[in-house]
């Protein structure tokens, strides 16, 4: 892998590397990255991997290689501005609903905010990074009391605390470093949206690359809600002299009335009342931006309340303008939410991200994409296509499939794909069991047959089970049945405590089971005897009413493709591979992946899904699996 990555960095060809759990893939790209003669960016999807790279892998590698390196390469972590504590907000106060700065929130938030303020001041004394990940325990709402986004920031030229600013110091360190570790979202903002966030670089290594499309989509998704419009109008009110803020508040009323008339779900075209209301918000916010007084030299350090209020109006204008355009490149939908969570909101997301990725990232940089799950259906094509690489551009096919040679300036993006294998012997360590005898899953959740199967499998395994379910309702039903029929086992369910606490309890109790939904499919690492059975209740196809997935599937069909296979089956294959990968985490792990959906072996698409899973020994024989689990448990 290291040799292939080094070759890609030198040749400029893009590279996809499937590297199974336990291969040490971070070293496989860090070694050539540190030897490369120009700056390299490493982008990850999860904070856990970012932390692992910066706190463990890179320092260990530099120490081990110290005797062969002529000089010690420098490295830095770079995150979005809202991930760092803001000293101006901490020392000067937070804008209230009218935009006036207030010193301290009231109620239970106060003590947590005080703890964060004290921590931030300590960070300035010890030259710490002021990064949210190293802060005392807190929630999102509390963190917003001590941080700002890029629109709310006064800017280094106006902020009286810019010399101490954590975000500015992180940017300065990154600009002086050979290796920068960042996240997918910041990479998307920098490369695709064209907002300069990362110092100039030559190569980007994208780890957890199976997540890239979803993270880029997430970064490019915007929302519009009535409370946001009202709050923005109130904050702007004290900074403008005319009626423009009142006009924005009136537009919020029109938006509420339009939401009440519009059913939730995907909107192929905006209904006229909703279209009119969104245009009102757009026009009112544009006028309000113009109504803010021009900043003058006499402002000195600047008015933080005004800067942040104006930033909120600009954000509102940007989002409403995008929605009013109703572009074919976007998907619009009305999301139904209860009033406690802010009420309904209008959402917009890109129909596809492969085009921007190809035009603004792949065309400009050399890109190395790596993950444990890049080959779906036994091939790189699905993932490569979703990220902007064409199967016809692959340059390491067999001779019969080799594409015609192309001129270097014709817009082609040559790429290679390699699978560096796994240290695990999946055929000996794991069993893939498909419960072929069960009825296909229905819309009403788990039936009696599925619950009986779950209880029997968990009983045979004597606990030690990770249950991955397609919905919170299914996870709770399975937990309730297991508690009732297997009272001697500990059954933990997602939502009953924070995930780190549930994971700790799961590891500590040899007879525990942990049942949950999507965050467990990808974010849990429990090697050893803790987990010897992974239960999956059904093939994780996207919901039929998922507005973005259904729009992408429809677009693929209209383009002459197979929308189901390109969108729904690919989505399911990726999640199945990730979920099944929770079982074998070391060379000594053993166990069973049990999938309670017979369609995996009876449906035509089942072969594609099975080819995406680790190559375990497979069976549909229930008695064989129960016996194997009992032997493992004993």
From TrEMBL:
<dbReference type="InterPro" id="IPR011545">
    <property type="entry name" value="DEAD/DEAH_box_helicase_dom"/>
</dbReference>
<dbReference type="GO" id="GO:0005524">
    <property type="term" value="F:ATP binding"/>
</dbReference>
<keyword id="KW-0547">Nucleotide-binding</keyword>
<keyword id="KW-0067">ATP-binding</keyword>
<keyword id="KW-0347">Helicase</keyword>
<dbReference type="GO" id="GO:0006139">
    <property type="term" value="P:nucleobase-containing compound metabolic process"/>
</dbReference>
<keyword id="KW-0378">Hydrolase</keyword>
<comment type="similarity">
    <text>Belongs to the helicase family. DinG subfamily.</text>
</comment>
<dbReference type="Pfam" id="PF00270">
    <property type="entry name" value="DEAD"/>
</dbReference>
<dbReference type="Pfam" id="PF13307">
    <property type="entry name" value="Helicase_C_2"/>
</dbReference>
<feature type="domain" description="Helicase ATP-binding">
    <location>
        <begin position="1"/>
        <end position="267"/>
    </location>
</feature>
<dbReference type="InterPro" id="IPR014013">
    <property type="entry name" value="Helic_SF1/SF2_ATP-bd_DinG/Rad3"/>
</dbReference>
<feature type="region of interest" description="Disordered">
    <location>
        <begin position="394"/>
        <end position="415"/>
    </location>
</feature>
<dbReference type="GO" id="GO:0043139">
    <property type="term" value="F:5'-3' DNA helicase activity"/>
</dbReference>
<dbReference type="GO" id="GO:0003676">
    <property type="term" value="F:nucleic acid binding"/>
</dbReference>
<dbReference type="InterPro" id="IPR045028">
    <property type="entry name" value="DinG/Rad3-like"/>
</dbReference>
<dbReference type="InterPro" id="IPR006555">
    <property type="entry name" value="ATP-dep_Helicase_C"/>
</dbReference>
<dbReference type="GO" id="GO:0016818">
    <property type="term" value="F:hydrolase activity, acting on acid anhydrides, in phosphorus-containing anhydrides"/>
</dbReference>
<protein>
    <recommendedName>
        <fullName>ATP-dependent helicase DinG</fullName>
        <ecNumber>5.6.2.3</ecNumber>
    </recommendedName>
</protein>
């Amino acid at each position: 892998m290291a040799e292939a990555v080094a070759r890609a960095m030198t040749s400029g060809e893009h590279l996809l590397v499937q590297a199974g759990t336990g291969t040490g893939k971070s070293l496989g790209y860090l070694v050539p990255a540190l030897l490369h003669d120009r700056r390299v960016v490493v982008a990850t999807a999860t904070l856990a991997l970012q932390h692992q790279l910066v706190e463990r892998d890179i320092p260990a590698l530099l120490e081990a290689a110290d005797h062969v390196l002529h000089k010690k390469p420098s490295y830095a972590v770079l995150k979005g501005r809202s991930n760092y504590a803001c000293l101006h907000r901490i020392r000067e106060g937070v804008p209230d609903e009218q935009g006036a700065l207030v010193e301290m929130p009231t109620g239970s938030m106060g003590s947590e905010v005080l703890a964060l303020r004290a921590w931030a001041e300590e960070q300035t004394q010890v030259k710490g990074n002021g990064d949210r990940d190293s802060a005392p325990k807190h929630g999102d709402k509390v963190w917003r009391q001590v941080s700002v986004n890029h629109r709310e920031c006064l800017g280094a030229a106006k902020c009286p605390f810019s010399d101490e600013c954590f975000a500015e110091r992180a940017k300065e360190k990154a600009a002086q470093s050979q290796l920068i570790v960042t996240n997918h979202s910041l990479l998307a903002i920098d490369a695709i949206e064209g907002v300069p966030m990362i110092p100039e670089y030559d190569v980007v290594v994208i780890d957890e690359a199976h997540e890239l499309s979803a993270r880029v989509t997430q970064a490019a998704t915007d929302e519009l809600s009535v409370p946001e419009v009202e709050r923005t109008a109130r904050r702007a009110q004290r900074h403008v002299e005319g009626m423009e803020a009142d006009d924005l508040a009136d537009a919020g009323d029109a938006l509420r009335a339009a939401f009440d008339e519009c059913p939730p779900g995907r909107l192929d075209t905006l209904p006229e009342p909703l279209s009119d209301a969104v245009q009102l918000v757009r026009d009112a916010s544009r006028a309000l931006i113009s109504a803010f007084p021009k900043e003058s030299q006499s402002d000195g350090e600047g008015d933080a309340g005004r800067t942040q209020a104006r930033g909120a109006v600009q954000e509102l204008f940007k989002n409403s303008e995008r929605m009013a355009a109703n572009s074919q490149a976007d998907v619009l939908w009305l999301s139904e939410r209860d009033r406690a969570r802010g009420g309904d909101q209008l959402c917009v997301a890109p129909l596809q991200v492969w085009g921007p990725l190809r035009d603004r990232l792949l065309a400009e940089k050399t890109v190395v994409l790596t993950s444990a799950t890049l080959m779906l259906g036994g091939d790189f094509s699905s993932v490569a296509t979703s990220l902007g690489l064409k199967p016809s551009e692959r340059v390491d096919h067999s001779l019969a499939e080799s594409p015609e040679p192309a001129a270097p300036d014709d817009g082609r993006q040559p790429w290679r794909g390699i699978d560096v294998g796994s240290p695990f012997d999946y055929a000996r360590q794991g069993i893939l069991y498909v419960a072929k005898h069960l009825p296909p899953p229905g819309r009403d959740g788990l039936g009696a047959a599925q619950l009986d199967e779950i209880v029997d499998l968990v009983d045979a395994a004597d606990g030690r089970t990770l249950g991955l379910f397609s919905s919170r309702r299914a996870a709770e039903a399975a937990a309730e049945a297991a508690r009732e029929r297997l009272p001697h086992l500990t059954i933990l369910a997602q939502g009953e405590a924070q995930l780190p606490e549930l994971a700790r309890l799961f590891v500590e109790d040899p007879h525990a089971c942990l049942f949950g939904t999507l965050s467990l499919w990808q974010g849990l690492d429990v090697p050893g005897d803790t987990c010897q059975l992974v239960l999956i209740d059904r093939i994780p196809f996207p919901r039929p009413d998922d507005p973005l997935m259904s729009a992408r599937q429809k677009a693929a069909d209209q383009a002459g493709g197979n929308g189901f296979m390109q969108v729904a089956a690919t989505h399911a294959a990726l999640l199945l591979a990730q979920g099944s990968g929770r079982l074998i985490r070391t060379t000594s792990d053993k166990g069973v992946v049990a999938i309670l959906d017979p369609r995996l072996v009876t449906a035509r698409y089942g072969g594609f899904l099975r080819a995406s899973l680790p190559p375990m020994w497979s069976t549909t024989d229930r008695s064989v699996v129960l016996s194997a689990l009992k032997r493992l448990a004993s």
